[in-house]
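Hi everyone,

Forwarding the result from last night's run.
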Amino acid sequence: MKTNEKIITTFLQKMGNQDLLSVFERIQQDFCQNKDHLQSLYNKWLSFYKEGMSHQEAFEMLTKASEELISVEEPEWEMIAARFLGYDIMCQVKQRMQQLQLSTFVEKVQYFVREGYYGAYLLEHYSPQEIEELSAYLKDERNDLFNYSGLELLYRRYLIHDYEHHVLETPQEMFMGIAMHLAMQEKERVHWAKQFYDVFSTLKVTMATPTMSNARKPFHQMSSCFADVVGDSLDSIYKSLDNFSQVSKHGGGMGLYFGKVRANGSSIRGYKGAAGGVIRWLKLVNDTAIAVDQLGVRQGAAAVYLDVWHKDLPEFLQIRTNNGDDRMKAHDIFPGVCYPNLFWELAKTNLDAPWYMMCPHEIYEIKGYHLEDYFGQEWEQRYYDCVADDRLSKRVMTVKEIVRLIIRSLVETGTPFAFNRDHVNEMNPNHHQGMIYCSNLCSEIAQNMSAMEILDTETVNLHGETIVVEKTKPGDFVVCNLASLTLGRLNVDDEKELQQTIHVVMRALDNVIDLNYYPIPFAQITNQKYRSVGLGTSGYHHLLCQKGIPFESDEHLKFMDQLYEKINYYALEASCLLAKEKGHYAYFQGSDYETGAYFQKRNYHSPKWQQLQEMIHHYGLRNGYLMAIAPTSSTSIIAGTTAAVDPIMKKFFIEEKKGSLMRRVAPDLSLKTFWLYKNAHYIDQNWIIKAAGIRQRHIDQSQSVNIYITQEFTFRKLLNLYILAYELGVKTLYYVRSQSLEVEECESCSA
């Protein structure tokens, strides 16, 4: 210990800062009981230190030295480096506040509002006394929960900086600002602000990136996911493109269903062969994604979906591949294919069977119905009715040929995403109000959707001015607000903690709906009718390793079946209690929740479930859709856990972020967990699909499920995974990630 005291004294002298003593003492207490960490740190730091360095430069080298010591053997350096970074952030904020002569949190909030960093609504809803009460509730010691990569990401991208890049906000002030925003219309707003703050600041819950970034700010667009049905007319297509540009401008990701758009060579106003097909329009989506970036940080992001029976499918499957005519490419958007059960049945039993691709517009002209508006047995009957009709032109390939095109694209680009439309619609709790055509950018959202209808344009006189008014009948424009339970941070065996946490986050998510800034009015209309939210999870593999459960085991499936049933139960319970307090969503009557079909379809028959079913029947639900598991790429880093439901890719890796290298270690890596953290690519992928099937029963929407492949994967092996997913009722599949393929993460849905 004397050696450590000498090292600490040397550090304090070189830094010229005695306040650092408390940081060193906590590090010594928490991490240096059995190891010579301070000696290692001192040796590494000396390799960076140069005489004449300023105190600040010397301190920065201390953080850098800690970060470079992170390894599989000593993962605790992630936490030590975070302690130094946390101290640095607090010092920077304190110094800036002194320069601005701001001494209290109230003064700080008032200054932030004046300068346009915070929205004025905070001061309109909270008195100075209430803000001071919340200030006294801040717990800066919770900064110690961050690891280095999480805190560095929070510092760089989420904390508020001024126009000269000085950080103005501490991590705990950020969490409180978000909590104050989400609680401000509650009758007991201070109470709920504290409740929200507690689950956010302990990292038990992460809100989606748009919520964390934009809550408390003047432009508070807090939703992650949007989806739209593109109508089959020039006006509808350009209206959908305009909507996408507005969503992208405000940081949202978009899913676009193009299954209603007529195929290449179809007729326009009776002129045969006039239509250019879907691909031409996808190039416009692609260009819009590039031109309208997300808040100036990254280019826009959209997924485009097409039915597997659409005549333009073969070209659609090649829009991201590197071979072929570049005029037919759209490299910056993400294709998804919508599959009926029939396709997978044929892929399973008869790959040589013919598959017929047709034009949806031609079907409507000749048959009088939209084939894409049906699902299940009724869709299959109508499909074969169309196949038998010689008046309809058809493009015929074998199922094997279609599957080969799909798998070639999967291996080369990681896409197309898979949307099992029959499963989705058969389990849709709001099927009485509509149809689900596709998913969103990250394939976890499944909600009723419909195309808007462009009506007439009229000229009106307003205060002596001639005004042109365009009338549009809104469809169901999907929008979803996301959050994730951090399973690795929760005591999932404590029913009270799990229930309390879920009840708090469900209230926070529901409040987002009313407090949100919507980029387009169609999103607001739909969101307030269905009040859809998406509660998901991160830290799945983290939790399994904490519990000592191998991923490839029946114990894993049994454990997660029980856990996700509990999560679903408490989410429904929370939404029901909110309905009792604030009223149910507009379309509750006639839904599967109201009729009880929701519970029958999922085999929820225990006395506990029957009691909840009766309560829901009586009071209703506040939210029409409740659960969806998003990718959580960024927010899982902040929470120091594993992403979504994915297994880890590596126990230790070095990540490049804007030119700097960051060392990352699997969470809670130890001798106990080391062998349980099996790399994703070396896990038998059947277990990933089986686990997705187990979880799907408890998730009313869907989940971002990735498949990881190696060079040894064959055509048949990959196809079998998709067939297994279909057999187990999995609604959607996200990327296929090969070891040699880098795919882009969705930042919008990160929750």
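The two ends are 43 Å apart (CA to CA).

Cheers,
N.
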